Protein 1
Amino acid sequence: MERRELLKMIALLTGGTVIGADLFLSGCNTKAGNYFSGDDIALFDEVAETIIPKTDTPGAKDAETGKFMATYAMGCYDEAQQKILLDGIQQLNKAANKKYAVTFMQLTALQKEELLTVIDKEAETYNTSKSEQAPPHYFSLMKQLALLGFFTSKPGATKVLRYIPVPGKYEGCIDYKKGETAWA
């Protein structure tokens, strides 16, 4: 699967365009400094693991998706998008505190799943009703980064998607059998 196809798939799954995709495809900009703390990266890991949990295949934490999310945001998001993501961490903790009286990191796996399901529905509603100039919902950014980070990682591409290392022979048309995983 090519980067452009993956970005299109993630955009379809999250109901919008992949933010920062133009910079990602052109190689991203590297910026000095770090906008996200170790605690922020740990939270990103928890959000990603809730979206893509470890089962009989690796989960998002196995792919160190939190690090990817922070790195991608630093290199491919503009300052406004980075601020939305950073503010989203606070909003996520506020939502957890309002519903469960603890921070997101202190929630059980089931509580994290319930909370993110509600926030995902809010994000979907927001994204479908917002104007083109309005900023994206913070959870849409988190979800896109989690999916992109996981499925472009080695564990995601080789253990979850079907993977044949290169070099190999080219087969332009392979029949798909219902229930098979996608190709990496």
Protein 2
Amino acid sequence: MKQDTAIFELHRSRLRSIAYRMLGEMPAAEDVVQEAWLRWQRAAEPVEDPRVWLSAVTVRLSLDALRAARRRREDYVGPWLPEPLAPSDTEAFATDASAHAELASDLSLALLYMLERLSPEERAALILHDAFDFDYDEIATSLGKSDVACRKLVSRARERVRLERPRYTVSDDVHHKLLEDFMQASATGDATRLATLLAPDVVVYSDGGGQVVAATQPIHGARAVTRFIVGIARRYSDDAIDLVPCPVNGQPGILIRQGTQILTALTIDTDGKVITAIYGVRNPHKLTRLMHSLGSAGGQETVKETGE
């Protein structure tokens, strides 16, 4: 029996949102949704609850894709960070998730990077419960586990996220100001100013994927991070580099641009006083979608240019 196409389209954006949260890659997420569509078309009987049925199919396909991706990521050069979303995708994905759940509006690179440390089943259970407000019986249907097992998965995953990524209430204005101060100090190689902006245990994650120059290990500590950033500033001192404000996965971010090419999409974590982590996606394959969506960041305000 061929299922109603219109019903699937009502759920498509949410399915993409689930798959992206699971996989951290839009092409892979779209492949999962396409396969879910094919299975929807091939369903032998009418589906009583399309929301649960389609979500369950999407989660199971995402679990298979995530396990395969993790085997590939073992050979990835340097830290693996999620593919940055285009602002339009971020807005749609936040809307599709539960409005009152803490995880719902958090599509940040920091959270998605943290979710990589969970088991695939923990990740799926937490996403369905905290981002999409699924009941435990619905999660059990999606994962093929008991309600009790799913409660344990969610509890364990939530505790790991809480311990490894404490939440801070920081206004957008404060976040923007810290990010702008950081980029100004970075552009000029101002080590003294950088030292005042960084937490003592700050960490830099730089994802080049072996395609471009990037740190192949996370860089820990304010002193090491300052040396790293000052070294980058010196390397690009003779080049015309634009720093373009742009939301990255729903957080204040900066696009580092050379001509029409986006070199890096950058965001920070902060406790409201200093920067606690820096995430820089440099792998050009992960920046293609963002660049196309923004028209190479055309129309955005340039906040700083070096190398006149």
Protein 3
Amino acid sequence: MATSPGGAPSHLFTTLRYDPGLREDANNTAVCGGAASPVYMMAYHHDRLREAAAAMVASRPGIEHRWLLNLEQPEQIAHVCAAHVQPEASNMGSEDRGTASGAWRCAVYLSIDGAISVKSAPAKQTVQPLLFPTSLDSFGKPLWTVVMDSQTTEPSLATSFKTSDRDMYNRAREAADISSPLHTKEVLLYSTSDLIMDGSITTPYFFREGGWVTPPTSSGGQLGVTRRWSLQHGLCSEGTVSRHSVEDGETVWLSNAFRGFFPATFRDMQSVQSLG
């Protein structure tokens, strides 16, 4: 776990989809407050970072925090991503350029002293992402598999916000034998109360009592960008989900701010082992 003096995490971050084609997407423009942006749900990322910074300041009042010194406006997220991606794109070889989709996966990092850095990778050609669904009720064949973690996770600031403390997610992914961000497999984390908190890199959605629900804030999971959008647009509501209620073969929707929304099939570990 990377921390700064006084126990505060060394950085906050948000992971996003940077895609120039999004400038033409009216749904994305609406989310971004009327600004045509190449960043998927740009304004929500800015809000997320501000909320994380405020939570960190409140939890450690004796530490000097300058998280948002250089990121006062949402548009600055697009600017720092563009400044990083454009030189990278121009340096891509013809083979890489031929397999890239035009979109990039970017992680924007904010250090406690206000410094900003970006890590990025080009997205390969895949099925067109579902970024702004109108419903979670219809879907094609799920291409992802989702499994349950092997042990409990204690809710904390680090499970509610993206920080440099990623130990619990790294452990869960290792236990689930997920070796790469490109692996089409996800693992669900659950609390000491046996309630689903979150996925390791996604927000999960479960069909319960006639509608789709996602774990509530009180469960301790990430306050994700796509989670916020889906709640605001009525795709789901908040609802507690016991880990014991998730059945083998059940369809679970997942979402994150790079891939958008996509269905997965839940498999219990016994089923996974028999298939393997």
